[in-house]
Amino acid sequence: MKLDLYLVTDAALCGARGVVETVRQAVDGGVTIVQLRDKLSTPAEQLTELEALAAAIDGRADLVINDRLDVAVAARERGIPVAGVHLGQGDDAVTRARAELGPDAIVGLTANTAAHREAVARLAPGTVDYLGVGVIHPTTTKPDHPAPLGVSGFREFAAATALPCVAIGGVQLADIAQLRAAGAAGVAIVSALCAAPDPAAAARTLMTEWQEAAK
Hints:
41% of the residues lie in helices and 16% in strands. It is an alpha/beta fold and 215 residues long.
């Protein structure tokens, strides 16, 4: 599991190019993990999309699905290489996800409050692999988002948990060095990749910034 550059898909932002081609290009540019986030499609449609995404990624990045544990299980039963799920606070329990997907799957969880962090700390070790923490800045890709944490709030959150924390929500190129210094294990990007005229070039720029921030 490499969380460095984490693409969360948005079909509307991908536009006519489509999600699959956007993901293909972004992975060409260095994206290390892809989350299919699609709130509108049916489970059958999501299965078809996962199959197409897996073919486009071709083993070069991990593929997870947002929310739909049932779809992740069905995909794996079909032999589609889906690595796991990312769940929100209102989705299937992470304990159920771990039980159904097994010890080698990726199980991520959205968390942005001390109460969320404390609840995760009470789980058996290995239940959750990473936390998606945000939002960092206000973002239109998730209109119902909680109050922004900013970089300082992210730093405080990440320092209080042993789990890897991925920064998400309004993250831009200018934030990456600060977020890595604040303890981010990765940065999750939506608009800056999905809406980019050239997703491969955008991913290369973002990954270079991420790598430079470690020096």
